[in-house]
Amino acid sequence: MRRFRRGEFLWRPGEPFSAVFYIDSGLVRSAVEGKRDRRTNSWHGPGTMYPVVHSEPFALESSITAEAVTDVGALEFTNDAVLSAIRRNPDFAVATIDFYSRYVINKGI
């Protein structure tokens, strides 16, 4: 369990992320850092797994930030641990896909 105070980042801005968080309490704002500004692209609260687990790095990764808007409690897993669990457990893999599908659908993308 990790605790973040309001205003803290879940990972250092400008760096790729290696952890995946399951938000247990609080609110996190995700944003993309541009050349001139920061644009909020999503909000994450209790029951959210963020950021998206991935097996390959992607260019936008170092531009994404995650800031605690309130005090946050989150379970922290390495990206590799989540990928390993997905590979070992088909039910977990399907649940992860379903979660991300709802996330994308709810975002209206």
From TrEMBL:
SUPFAM superfamilies: cAMP-binding domain-like (SSF51206). It holds the Pfam family cNMP_binding. Residues 2-89 form the Cyclic nucleotide-binding domain. Gene3D superfamilies: Jelly Rolls (2.60.120.10). It comes from the Bacteria. This is Crp/Fnr family transcriptional regulator.
